[in-house]
Design brief:
Elements: H1 5-15, H2 23-43, H3 47-56, E1 63-64, E2 71-72, H4 74-86, H5 100-114, H6 118-137, H7 150-166, H8 171-182, H9 196-216, H10 232-236, H11 255-258, H12 273-285, E3 293-301, H13 302-307, H14 316-319, H15 323-333, H16 343-346, H17 349-355, E4 358-363, E5 378-383, E6 388-390, H18 407-419, H19 427-434
Parallel strand pairs: 3-4
Antiparallel strand pairs: 1-2, 3-5, 5-6
Helix pairs in contact: 1-8, 2-4, 2-5, 2-18, 3-4, 4-5, 4-9, 5-6, 5-7, 5-9, 6-7, 7-8, 7-9, 8-9, 12-15, 15-17
Amino acid sequence: MAVAITQELGRFISGLRYADIPAEAIAVMKMGFADSIGVMIVGAKEPAATTLRSVLAAPAGPSRLFWGADTAPAPEAAFINGVAGHALDYDDVAQRGHPSTVLMPAIIAEAQLLGASGEEMLCAYAAGYETWAELVRRDPDQHHEKGWHPTGIFGAIAAAAACARLHHLNAEQTTHAIALGASQSAGLMANFGTMTKPFHAGRSAQSGLLAARLAKAGFTASPDALEHPQGYLSAVSPARKVDRDSPVEAGRVWKLVSARLGIKKYPLCYCTHRILDATFDMIAATPIAHADVRRVVVHTSRHFATILRNALPQTGLEAKFSMQFAVSSMLVVGRAGLLELQDHFVTSPEIQSLMKRVVIEPDDREDPATPGKLPFDCLTVEMNDGRVIESRQVKHIRGGAELPLSRDALWGKFEDCVKSAPVNIPALEVFNALMSLETVANVNQMQYAS
């Protein structure tokens, strides 16, 4: 018999208190806020964010755009900031998607309206993340395989949970908010490599915020919208193998502690990061002249190979989802960062030529602990002179849950992002405040762009 998942989550979220959250989870969430805000700030200049802002033409309001001086109503701010946060694909990764780039914009926008404290914002993030994780664990299959973008289909529900907690909705209202979020879940993998991928994140943030507001105003939805045979879990499941029977773990088994967040070192799809780490270490040990490379063979999972759909990208956006580009960039210039994700670099003769010599060999073996991944990724470089150079076997990504970034490394990324921003942000002051978010009495007392 199906468990009342929607209502159980409603009770968990409405009853969640800051004191209930493990200290380790608090540390993870603060990293999520700092990282995603830094990436959002630099993403403000991306065409996806500027175009959306122009089209919405939102009036001034209580919520900041891009941590700057300009403002908008909270729903529009959540939408625009969410798109900016995911426009570079440089934001954190967990639970098959990108949780912070959905949760942070929704929470910040509404918190600025409400004058919420840092503790309340962290409580809201925990509600959203654990709700997201609860839904992920109930399906053993990878949603990418059906064409779903997990950030889009989980995000609206998680943002609804976060904003419901921020508004202190009761259990019944929160249940309605979750169900409303579920009916706004959307996002297709076919749109990867275009402006529509970050649209999924921003729209999810806005949708969740709207769901919580509507539920607070008395708008109703089905109290079994998640677990019903014709509900969310069944609708989005690749093979309809969903678990609708086991007890809800949210609030009992903290996924923020066990799964954490993966903080990206490279602004490319996370599926490239094992190979990027392997290539970086390879060329550090054995310098390789890219013109002398005959062929590169990449060993990765078929799941990753499916997501990385662009074999010969022609734009920076397309290159984010190309293993061929990731390897070529690293071999040609020893980096794969924001500077390399420029159209002129992607279409340069050296990169275009080398990408044609990169071959992906998909492997169907699966690491039981991490579905969708191989036990490890690696690559082999075959040189024109007959030499064969093999990389190390990479299981854990630098910046991932197993090898988390230090505070100094996270600050370095934040500082780099802010230096490239179109507004004047007091970077160190903002970073330090975010890393001690629990001490903030009112989000509106924090420092923003002058």
